[in-house]
Structures are given as structure tokens and as C-alpha cells.
Design goal:
Blueprint (H helix, E strand, L loop, with lengths): L1 H6 L10 H28 L8 H21 L3 H7 L1 H9 L9 H8 L5 H17 L3 H23 L3 H12 L12 H137 L1
Helix pairs in contact: 2-3, 3-5, 8-9, 8-10
Length: 324
């Protein structure tokens, strides 16, 4: 991926969201088909039957333009996408079909689109290096080359043929193709050819078996890569949900704290009001007790006065009774 990024043909990064990866994979097939048409167009431009259709140029340019715009709108990190696909951006800007480039410049700018083949060539090279590193496949290929050269040399010596004919005979014999254009005529050559066929079948089966194992492993690696991307996307989604939940909990806690503070203030206000009411009740009770005390004192004083006024009257009435 780093080599592709330096060349400006990286495409959608592996750690982007699943939707961007899915759409990016679709555009890879469209771009590959468009590059095939560009290659055919350039080859025919050098022949006597060029294809210089403005509509075809517009369609090809639209494929590259749509890939750039759509992928840029879907990826999360847009600056990284532009930095890793700067060549695609350059091609879109320079190969505009409505700009009438004259002479060799038109061919150069159209040929510039073929540089995007580096995206697929780099992937093929990485897969080839991975294939050579698995199950000693590189050593098997080196042995295969040595076998072809050695067998071709022996055949050219036995049959007294040119060395290139011996190499060709070794290749078609080991691969069990057998075109029949180069065949041994001597007894020694036929015996050597029989041994080479048996040895070639055994040796070539190792090559095909390793290649088949690589293809199966490639599907498995792709599945593992998809699973890893899904796990990463799920992890991002869970982290985002966790952050949202934390924010929601913090909001609830803040609201609860504010509500508790408000209730505490209300409670304090009610307590102060209750204390004030109690003081008023105490003052009222004190005033009532004082009023009752004054009333009782006034009643006592009135009773005493009436008793004192009544005593002289009783004395006068007693005296009158005595006179009688």
C-alpha cells in the first residue's frame, strides 16, 4: 500500500469505512475495463485504423472522474485519499476531453492514464512475491528453470540440434504440451524424452500444486482481510456508541445534579419558611397568653372592686335592719 501511495494510485485505503471499500472495489473493475479500452485506443492510434471518437474519450474520462469524486465523497479521511491518489487527480485535470490538446500533447495526456495500470501491476507484483515466499515456491521455480536449461542442453547434444530447439523441446515436454514440431530421432533421444516426461510431470505438478494452494490461500487472505476490516469498523462503531453513551450519562448526571441542587434549595427555603411560621405561631401564642393574662387580671380586679363596693351596701342594709 505504501508503494501505491507514493505512486499516487493507492485507491481507497484499507482502513476506510465498509461502504467506501465496497464502492472502491466496484470502481476498480470499471477502471480496469477503461484502461483496457485506453490501451486498445493507443495501439490503434499508432496503426492505420485509429479510433478517435470524442464520445469514447468523454466516457473514459468520466470513469476516472466519477471514481475520484465518488470515492472522495465516501471516504472518511479525504486528505489522505487525495494524497495517496494524486496521480489520478492529475490525470483527471490534464486529460479533460473538451480541452483540445494539439499534436503529441494529446497523445501524451491520453497515455498518462495508462500509468494507473501501476495500481494493478503493483498488486500483481506483491502477490507474486508472496507466492514465491510460500512453500519454497521460489526455489521450485529456480529448479524448474535449471531443469529446462539442463534438459535442453542434453537434448541438443544427443540430437545434435541447436540449443534453442533443446530449450523449446524441454519446455513443451515438461509441461506435457507436446506440439510435435521438435521431436527426437535417435534412440538415446527417445529414452531421454521418456525420462524427461516422467520427471517433468512430477516436477510440474509441484508448480501447479503450489499455485493452486496460493489461489486458495489468496481467497482465505481476502476473507481474513474482510473480517479484519469488519472488526475495525465494528470497533469504531462501538467506540462511537460508547462515547455517545458516556456523553448521555454525563448529561443525565449533570441534569440530576442540577435537579438535586434545585430540590435542596427548595427544601432549604421550605425549612426557612417553616421556621418562620413556627416563630409566628410562637409569637401568636405568646400574645394570646399575654392577652389572656391581662383579661384574667382585669376580671380579678373587677371582682375585687365589686366586692369592695358591695360591703358598704351590706353594712347599711344591716344597720337598717337593726334599727327596725
Amino acid at each position: 500500500m505504501k508503494i501505491k501511495a507514493l505512486l499516487g494510485v493507492a485507491g481507497v485505503h484499507d482502513r476506510e469505512n465498509s461502504r467506501a471499500l465496497r464502492v472502491g472495489k466496484i470502481f476498480e473493475y470499471l477502471v480496469a475495463f477503461a484502461l483496457l479500452l485506453v490501451f486498445v485506443q493507443l495501439i490503434l492510434a499508432l496503426s492505420d485504423y485509429p479510433i478517435d471518437s470524442p464520445w469514447l474519450n468523454a466516457v473514459l474520462w468520466s470513469v476516472f472522474f466519477c471514481e475520484l469524486v465518488v470515492n472522495l465523497s465516501l471516504v472518511d479521511k479525504k486528505r489522505r485519499y487525495l494524497a495517496e491518489n494524486w496521480l489520478n487527480l492529475l490525470i483527471v485535470m490534464l486529460a479533460v476531453p473538451w480541452v483540445n490538446w494539439q499534436g503529441d500533447w494529446a497523445l501524451i495526456f491520453r497515455s498518462l492514464r495508462l500509468v494507473l495500470l501501476l495500481r494493478f501491476i503493483t498488486s500483481f507484483f506483491q502477490d507474486a512475491m508472496l507466492l514465491l515466499g510460500r512453500n519454497r515456491f521460489g526455489q521450485i521455480l529456480i529448479g524448474f528453470v535449471f531443469l529446462i536449461i539442463g534438459a535442453g542442453s542434453i537434448f541438443s547434444y544427443i540430437e545434435d540440434r541447436p540449443f534453442i530447439d533443446g530449450i523449446w523441446y524441454a519446455i513443451v515436454t515438461i509441461t506435457t504440451v507436446g506440439y510435435g514440431d521438435v521431436v527426437p530421432f535417435t534412440e538415446e533421444g527417445r529414452i531421454f524424452g521418456t525420462v524427461l516426461i516422467i520427471f517433468g510431470v512430477l516436477f510440474f505438478s509441484l508448480v501447479t500444486a503450489n499455485f493452486s494452494a496460493f489461489l486458495i490461500g489468496s481467497d482465505q487472505r481476502k476473507l481474513e482481510k474482510d473480517i479484519l476490516n469488519y472488526v475495525r469498523q465494528t470497533e469504531k462503531r462501538l467506540i462511537k456508541q460508547s462515547m455517545d453513551i458516556e456523553k448521555h450519562v454525563e448529561s443525565i448526571m449533570l441534569h440530576s445534579t442540577q435537579e438535586v441542587d434545585r430540590l435542596q434549595k427548595e427544601l432549604q427555603r421550605y425549612q426557612l419558611l417553616e421556621e418562620h411560621l413556627q416563630r409566628l405561631q410562637q409569637e401568636k401564642n405568646s400574645e394570646e397568653a399575654l392577652f389572656m393574662h391581662k383579661q384574667s387580671q382585669e376580671l380579678s380586679a373587677g371582682d375585687k372592686k365589686r366586692e369592695s363596693d358591695k360591703k358598704p351596701e351590706d353594712a347599711v342594709s344591716s344597720a337598717k335592719q337593726d334599727d327596725l
